[in-house]
Amino acid sequence: MHKYTQEDEIIMRELMLGNKAVARGMYEAGCKVISSYPGTPSTEITEEAAKYDEIYCEWAPNEKVALEVAHGASLGGVRSACAMKHVGLNVAADPLFTISYQGLNAGLVICVADDPGMHSSQNEQDSRHYAIAAKVPMLEPSDSEEARIFTKRAFEISEKFNTPVFIKMCTRVSHSQSVVCTGERVVPEQVPYVKDPTKVMMTANSRNAHVRVEQRTKDLIAFAETDDINRVEMGDTSIGIITSSTSYQYAREVWGDNVSILKLGMVYPLPEKLILDFAGKVDRVIVLEELDPIIENHCKQLGIKVSGKDTFPICGEFTQNLVRKCMGMEVPESIHIDDEIPGRPPVMCAGCPHRGIFYILHKNNCMVYGDIGCYTLGAVAPLNTMDLNVCMGASCSGLHGFNLAMGKAGEKKSVGVIGDSTFIHSGMTGITDIAYNMTNSTVIILDNSITGMTGHQQNPTTGKNLRGEPAGKVDLEALCHAVGFNRVTVVDPYDLAEVDRVLKEELSVEEPSIIISRRPCVMIKGMVHKPSLHVDKDKCVGCKACMQIGCPAIKVTDKEDGSGRKVADIDTTLCIGCEVCTQMCKFDALKSADKTEVTA
Amino acid sequence: MAVKKIMIVGVGGQGTLLASKMLGYVLLNQGFDVKVSEVHGMSQRGGSVVTYVSYGDKVYSPVIDKGEADVIISFEKLEAARWLEFLKPGGQIITNTQEMEPMPVITGAAVYPDRLVEKMEEAGAKVDAKDFLAIAKKAGSAKAVNIALMGRLSIYFPEIPDEAWHEAMKAIVPAKFLEMNEEAFELGRTAE
Fold first, then answer.
1. How large is the average pLDDT for residues B58-69?
2. pLDDT of residue A8
């Protein structure tokens, strides 16, 4: 089926994650530089690429920096790439649009991973709009083997048409494993850098570049008409489905071979004649695409009558049963039990250093402008201590705006809360605004020495690079002082009384302030933990005070003496002895044991 | 061969990803087309997690939908019940009898349902429920629950030779834990 695989020398058959297959494609294409910012579901692309010694990989402070680094490497003459999640592309949008004009020297591939269904994201934006807006071609694989092949093809298209090329992933392609047949690495010669005055993007040069981009799009449409990256699979002609990505898999799952499909591997720019020809051969055209009606609107512009978003939803992720239901087809019979099944939402880990901060913010009834990271879990029960969040860094700048509107009523009761990696990504500019334009805002930087939620990546505050080797290290205190904060206080989030005292003081002062809550994430490999606690069941009165912090290691059970009394119980496999709960107990019932454990 | 679908469900942090890796390895080496789909990210923080494993001559969808799974392997009893709707009527559930209370139960906002194994059987599922945590501990580590469950699963695949499972373990489990995991696999497989 994938006829373009025939050119590749097949080495081995392997079950591979979609993201790993993209990394494999980069390796085989001779890519030499990758700069990225982690973000689910894109993170493993760069992590897997870093396992090849031949590729230089780095974590950049944010996606804009990452794209500029990758583009710089392309101008320097080597194939280069960057990877990001969909919302990261918003951050990288500024260089994107002008890089599209300026062009490159060696191939440049931008991987962007959407998250339909928002498994791990704050919105469900459709990255294809960026391809259209920036006039940058976009390839969209439907499984791991296509992810590998399309990535290699993306470099070729990039060089042939002098344009960056998107590889557009989605959660189901990024995080599904399917069979890949790997090929060998072929490294093109480094392209010499030659000074070219038309590369300076101003007035006349930019006007000429825009004309070139419009012609490039026409050339790419001609390419899309005939290249086998778009393919027609004719079957029964009563229905013809135009689709791409994982939706192709759902179409085959539902209809099997009894249907005709135009499978688009390149979703921008879209072919015209190919689509018109296909539509002419079938009785009814259905466009099956997740999120926005982009292929559908293109078909409608071509004057083709199609079923699309009148039949399938814009919101959420597709599955085979969803397609069946929307088409009025039968879905498989299923069984259930009548009991209500309690939800199991994600929770902050036992011993998480964020817990103490959120408990104290809760106790002080603060308005908390949160940010993007594990600490967003401060919003859920029982802490319920996050009022707002928007995007990377908004906790700082958004708080400043909030306090401009609220005055003292805001300044005395509100805080911004942001993690170390998110702070470097986009919080620095926000706190600079606070210091420069002087609201008495208080920002808490949760410095847990790692990028937590995406799976423990290093960042500029950790002193280690992507490979875990020693690297430069941002001094957060010095940075905050340098942008204009006089008050920068470091607290230990395990010390509730100290956190409470410092918070009250910083909220009361008439100047901007920073609190740095410093404790490494408990899940960092090799961390030495204190012994787990246990409950003195004679002292415990079952008051549940320790439960207020929402630690998953603590629950209340029946006392084993058959008295019917309730007592606290600690799961010693989860507890890491942070002793935050002991500070909640008025009866001295939570005790430490005497052994030290190391996280495996 | 027509496509068969297996779900691996549990609680974030229980080691479901290693189980799916091992199962994928075994099925690929049997010459099948295989797809394994899982969601990473925030759900791993103690939330409910699910992995879909489909295999056969040609697999299209990476996900498994309601009423489609031939087998559900559950690391925790409540999770088996949560995903029951995804089982084909008459399909097989293999579940650990361990109970892990989710936060709404810990805080008292919800109750952990009783008699779950019986209720799932009454609903029309075949249920093979064992204390795989105790089995794993007997083998030497609570972390070997995943391998003990894989041992149990192997009973339901008489067509797959024993060597295939052991080969997969060798490829996936760190060498220093291999012996212990071999023991967990065997104890899971033979548990009464």
1. 98
2. 47
Q: State how far the Cα of A306 lies from the Cα of A276, in Å rounded to an integer.
A: 12
Q: Does pLDDT of A4 surpass 50?
A: no
B103 reaches A (C-beta below 8 A): yes
> Are A62 and A18 part of one and the same domain?
yes
| Residues of A in Cβ contact (< 8 Å) with B44 | 346
CATH code: domain of residue B55: 3.40.920.10
Residues A545 and A513 in one domain: no
Confirm whether pTM is higher than 0.90.
Answer: yes
> Do A120 and B35 make contact, defined as CB atoms within 8 angstroms?
no
- Look at chain B and report how many structural domains it folds into: 1
For A134, phi then psi, to 5°, come to -90, -5
Domain end among A459, A486, A518: A518
Q: Quick one: closest CA in B to A573, which residue?
A: B142
Closest Cβ–Cβ partner in B41, B103, B123 for A345: B103
Q: How far apart are CA A558 and CA A448, in angstroms?
A: 36
Domain end position, chosen among A500, A518, A536? A518
In the numeric block, which tokens belong to residue A446?
């949760």
Whether A340 maps to a domain, the answer reads no
* Measured distance between the N- and C-terminal CA atoms of chain A, rounded to whole angstroms: 44
Residues A185 and A288 in one domain: no
Contact B46 A119 (CB under 8 A): no
Q: Are residues A178 and A261 in the same domain?
A: no
Interface touch A342/B111, C-beta < 8 Å: yes
Q: Which domain holds residue A455?
A: 354-518
Q: Is A176 in Cβ contact with B35 (below 8 Å)?
A: yes
Strand, coil or helix: A80: strand
Distance from CA of B52 to the nearest CA of A (A): 9
pLDDT at A63: 98
A466 and A591 part of one domain? no
* Spatial contact of B49 and B113, defined as CB atoms under 8 Å apart: no
SS3 state at A167: strand
Domain match, A368 and A413 both: yes
Is there a domain that residue A319 lies in? Answer: yes
CA geometry: angle A154, A157, A159, nearest 5 deg = 110
Q: What is the pLDDT of residues A421-467, one digit of tens each?
A: 999 999 999 999 999 999 999 999 999 999 988 889 999 999 999 99
Backbone angles phi, psi at A118, to 5 degrees: 50, 55
CB contact under 8 A, A143 and B35: yes
Whether the ω angle into residue A342 lies within 30 degrees of 0, i.e. cis, is no
End-to-end Cα spacing for chain B: 32
- SS3 readout for A86-148: HHHHHHHHHHHHHHHHHCCCCCEEEEEEECCCCCCCCCCCCCHHHHHHHCCCEECCCCHHHHH
Range of the domain at B120: 4-190
CATH code: domain of residue A266: 3.40.50.920
Q: Please count the structural domains in chain A.
A: 4
Closest by CA position to B58, among listed A173, A181, A289, A257? A257
Closest residue in B to A44 (Cα–Cα) = B40
**A343 falls within a domain:** no
Q: Is residue A342 part of a domain?
A: no
